[in-house]
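B., you asked whether I could sanity-check this one before it goes into the benchmark set. Here's the sequence:
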Amino acid sequence: MSIRALIVDDEPLARTGVRQLVEPLDDVTIVGEAADGPEAVQQIEEQAPDLVFLDVQMPEMNGLEVVREVGVENMPLTIFVTAYDQYALDAFEAHALDYLLKPIEEERFEEALERARQQLRQQEADTLSQQLRGVLREYAEEETEGIERFTIRTRNRIYFVDADDVQWIESEGDYVALHDGEDTHLVRKTMKELEQQLDPSRFLRVHRSYIVNADYIEELRPLDHGTYQLRMASGTPLKTSRGYSDNVDALLDATG
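And here's what the prediction gave me:
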């Protein structure tokens, strides 16, 4: 049996790492690579691979959103690839879905691929669909509850920052910078993702590049055309933009 595989990861080195593990195998052929979610959806629909190595943490459209877009019934057998994320690992294990933890260990890769071979031989499409639905439901429930703390990954350690301590958030390309008044922490998420996941009664998008925690706004000074100058508890001044004036007006209405 020949397995046609697709590699999906926004990090070129990560894609190369998976490719190097796959290339020596006689029964697996790489039919393509995708560097983001939309490209992954297109490749899955056009290439119809048997197996997808799918990165969970991608900007704009993450791995779970790729599954939603393709549809669980149309999704090939999937091995998720993730940086350390205890919630993701617990979810995959609870629903018996296979995953690889970055950096990928060769022995663990071989175990996951052997299970994939067995599943493809057995053609357990219905089982896979049920497993994917379970994970999607679990992630949907987590997203509606709102982020309570952030997982920060650096080269040397993994640590956590409570959402309650974050005063404001600034866009940094494919990352966001969390400002807690003393330190700045980089997280690989987009402003769009955070706007959907944070508690909207506390975290307000006031600018294309800023989300603020209303609990830490100490002063608002009206400027021209419905914009404001905010002063955060840390003393940082932030200017709102007209496109998000409704959010600021709603905050003012709520506080009387």
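One thing to flag: Residues 3-145 form a domain with the Rossmann fold fold (CATH 3.40.50.2300). Otherwise nothing jumped out at me.
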